[in-house]
Each structure stands twice: as C-alpha cells, then as structure tokens.
Amino acid sequence: MATRPSPDRRPVHPVHGLLLAFPVALFTTALLSDIAYLNTAEMQWSNFAAWAITGALLAGAPLLLWAALGLWRRRRDPARRHALAYFLLLLVMWGAGLINAFKHSQDAWSSVGTAGVALSIVAAVTALAAGWLGFSGERIAR
C-alpha cells in the first residue's frame, strides 16, 4: 500500500507544482515548434512557438516570485542549496524565455535561427531541470 509523503517531505506546494508544469510543457513545445519550423519553413510553427513562449513566461512569472520568496524565507537555513539552485534555474529559464520572446517577435524568417533555437534549448532544458529538482524530494519552495 502506497503512503503519502508527510507535508514536511513534499518538495513543493501543489499549486507551485501546477504552475511549474506550464513552463516545462510550453518551453518544450516552443523548442519542438522551432525544430519543426527549421525543417518545414512553415511560418505558423514560428507563431506557435511565440505563443508557447508567452504562455510559459506568464505562468513562470508567479513561479519565479514564489521561488524567490521561498528562498528568502530559508535565508538562514544551512541546507538552502537546493532552494538556491532551484531559484537560479527558474531565473535562467525565465530570462532565456524573455530574450527568446523578443527574438521570436521578429519576422519569422529571422526569428528562428541559431539564436532562437539556442534560447529555446536553454529555456526548455532549464525548465526540465527545475521540474526535476522541484520534485526530487527536497523541500525548496513552500
């Protein structure tokens, strides 16, 4: 019989976990859309990536704020390494996503090039890493 983790061992608040799901899914979707655009040159893939990035940024903003507040609450905790790493991953994810949103706001022919795909990779990988770290069993953003 499976047991539920105690409230002290849950890594993140359930609402925090729901918010985290959006950047993980949407930044990954944007990366896949960029790859599809590079293979087909169909401009709608670039538009789809731009909308996915925007959605990820909108869900990621309160997530980043929540992680910053969680980090601040644990400022005197000697075991705050995980919270700091989680916050930095979210910060890099959101920053790369914001720059990528500006990149994708250009004409479709120039928005998805080396820089656009590289920013999509950075945002997607850091979102996935934050999701993995967020649910690794350490209490980070409560």
Number of helices: 5
Shape, per Cα inertia axes: elongated
Number of domains: 1
Rg over CA atoms: 17 Å
Strands, total number: 0
N/C terminus separation: 27 Å
Order of helices and strands: HHHHH
Measured by DSSP, the beta-strand proportion falls in: under 5%
Q: Give the uncertain stretches in residue-range form.
A: none
**Structural class category:** mainly alpha
Largest sheet: none
Q: In percent, how helical is the residue content? A: over 70%
Could you tell me the mean pLDDT? 84
Explain what the structure shows.
- The chain has 142 residues and is mainly α.
- It has one domain (14-134).
- Helices cover 75% and strands 0% of the residues.
- It has five helices and no strands.
- Helix 2 packs antiparallel against helix 3 (81-104).
- The radius of gyration is 17 Å and the shape is elongated.
- It starts with 13 loop residues before the first helix and ends in an 8-residue tail after the last helix.
- This is DUF2231 domain-containing protein.
- Keywords: Membrane, Transmembrane, Transmembrane helix.
- It comes from Sphingopyxis bauzanensis.
- The chain crosses the membrane at residues 48-72, 84-102, 108-135.
- InterPro entries: DUF2231_TM.
